Amino acid sequence: MSDNSLNNLPGGFKGMSHDMGSDQTAFKGAQWGKVMMWIFLLSDTFIFSCFLISYMKGRTSTVVDWPNTSEVFSLHVGGVPVPLLLIAIMTFVLITSSGTMALAVKYGYERNRKMCGWLILATAIGGLTFVGMQVFEWSKLIHEGVRPWENPFGAKQFGSFFFMITGFHGTHVSIGVIFLFIYARKVFRGDFDNAKRGFFTTMKSDYVAIEILGLYWHFVDLVWVFIFAFFYLW
Amino acid sequence: MDEIQKKKQATSTHKLGVYLWIWGLLFVLSFFSYLVDWFQFQGLLRHSLILIFMFLKAGLIMAFFMHLYWERYALVSVLLWPMTAVVGFIVLMAAEAKYTVFTRLLYFFIGG
């Protein structure tokens, strides 16, 4: 993450102007792949921002009452409706998987191959659980008559925003799960310890790849924080 | 050799406790934001609590899980300053939404 030569550079905002004006690489101490992932995540942030802003606009400007999400997303446990139960469980599952991913990055840098592999596998299973619960939620709502163009609970825009926003997020989670399984296999196989060359690239594998994968996974969790707040709770 | 190895490890990874603390805090904050709905808080209290818990969670994830707290400001600034454009967009669209709902109420119910 950081090498010792960075310790001699000025820090803080002074360091920022130093780095930017150094006529060399601007992002010192960050491997290029990590910077590329950050730039991608920044662009992805703009996409999700546009979705959530259009949702804000749609919800504010409709003259029909917005469906009560607390009731729409409630589950019946023993005949008693518990508000937002499934969404709360999904939130906890995603945070759990985010935590295991953070630890996987740590153990990867410590070259603890087995621990890193198992934690990535745990993260993948957490993500898979999340997607499974989302499938359940979608089919439940579709069964109740929610469509992108109508729903029995209130404003018609509700359905299109729900399927669009949670669907796009679910796609991100699914892609992440696929990559988590691929990287779990790579870790267990010892690609990163032996600096094996990759399938698509001639560059040597390095544990920084796990941090880059982790950035993507934490971003998926980050987006869910905003969806949970604005779509389900607001 | 052992000394060098140790030093290298100390600079390249963070303590386990940091991650566990952040993990625990995220659970607590998520539980709190669920309680906002459970107790059916309404109005300004509801919205401010939702926003506070949301920003705290997002900040913790970005700072510690995504390591931004340990990155140099050059990278942090490139990532965070564009967010002001998003904030500007939100302000514009909030104003636009108010205008849209005003015209709808005017023409649908009152009649232009």
Describe the structure.
The complex is a heterodimer of chains A (234) and B (112). By secondary structure, chain A is mostly helical. Chain A folds into two domains: 1-30, no CATH class; 31-233, Cytochrome c oxidase, subunit III, four-helix bundle (Four Helix Bundle (Hemerythrin (Met), subunit A), Up-down Bundle), CATH 1.20.120. In chain A, 68% of the residues lie in helices and 3% in strands. Chain A contains seven helices and two strands. Chain A has a two-stranded antiparallel ribbon with strand order 1-2. In chain A, helix 2 packs parallel to helix 7 (208-233) and helix 5 packs antiparallel against helix 6 (157-189). Helix content of chain B is 83%, strand content 0%. In chain B, helix 2 (16-38) packs antiparallel against helix 3. Chain B folds into two domains: 2-71; 82-112. With 112 residues, chain B is mostly helical. Chain B starts with a helix and ends with a helix. Chain B has five helices and no strands. Chain B has helices at residues 2-12, 16-38, 43-65, 73-80, 83-110. The interface between A and B is large, with 62 and 57 residues.
Would you summarize the structure shown here?
Chain A is an all-alpha fold and 234 residues long. Chain A is built from seven helices and two strands.
Write the layout of secondary structure elements.
The complex is a heterodimer of chains A (234) and B (112).
Chain A: H1 12-20, H2 32-61, H3 69-72, E1 75-77, E2 80-82, H4 85-109, H5 113-143, H6 157-189, H7 208-233
Antiparallel strand pairs in A: 1-2
Helix pairs in contact in A: 2-6, 2-7, 4-5, 4-7, 5-6, 6-7
Chain B: H1 2-12, H2 16-38, H3 43-65, H4 73-80, H5 83-110
